[in-house]
Request: fold
Amino acid sequence: MISTDDIEWRPKDAPSALRALELLGRRLREKGDQRAVFCDIYILITRRVVGIMSADDNAGFIDARWLSLLTGRFAEEALIATLTSLRNTTVRRAAWRFANHYSAHKLAKPCQDAILGVSAHINYDLPIVVYDHLAAEGAALDVDRLKRYRHDYMRVNKILEASIPECLDLLVERYQCPITTRLLQVPLCRPFLCHAVHKTLVAWRDRVWSETLELLHAPNADVRRAIIERMDRRAGRIAQLVCSQSALGLALRGEPPPFRLSRAPHTWPDVDPTRAAERTVTDHVLERAGRQLNPAGWTPAHRQAREPSAGGHGTRTVPS
Reply:
């Protein structure tokens, strides 16, 4: 188990998220833990977000402060999922169970580790976190403000596009990923691969925005919960697809695959619901989906979340 006492697991903005990710990434690399792959990818992107904070024109973002706050809350989901995995406690969400399990046991190539983490973080975490922020504004969220948020949300695609070449280089140079290395050796493959990755991320994030609005305008708690469960299933299926190459390799060697594609992702791997995981923004949104609240009185869920204590095992309540 790596030392976790001095890592800020619930960052409040982009700079604190970057510090937490850099410290976690360094600790994971020192232990040769492949969970560092996604963490390092995330660090590259977060550094660019932090750079926007000091840019004269905020790199075209309307509300750089909102982007910074959202980045901190978004990073919290990935950090807590990793912490939960490090403690050998069940990670509730299907996509994160795949990402952490395959990386921790070195069952996948580095590029698969990166894809698993990115997919879980975008396809499941992102709509939850953005919805939580928008819902917390209550009556203050008018049409004009929503348009400004959408503008900045979509502009993040530019950050991702600029980060992709650096991420590919990291997979090759730091992690010696055989798949990425072979692909980049093919003439003209690098621009094609960058374009394909960017288009995939944009498609995922477009759908996430639509799902965020679905959550925001859901008529009742049951509909909201059904949307979240649908997101969990789809993110899990994407993870299964990414891992299918590893499962095929095991089957060809005469070893049993770790899962069947016909098996629901939320039942894999070895889920033990009796073991409590760290609470995240997701948990509070799910809880709120089960009761009626006055929108004008909503507060961001992460301000009410239970935070790991300095010793790493206890919890304390974060004040509003």
User: Anything to note?
Assistant: The beta strands are 306-308, 315-317. Confidence is low (pLDDT under 50) at residues 270-277, 290-320.
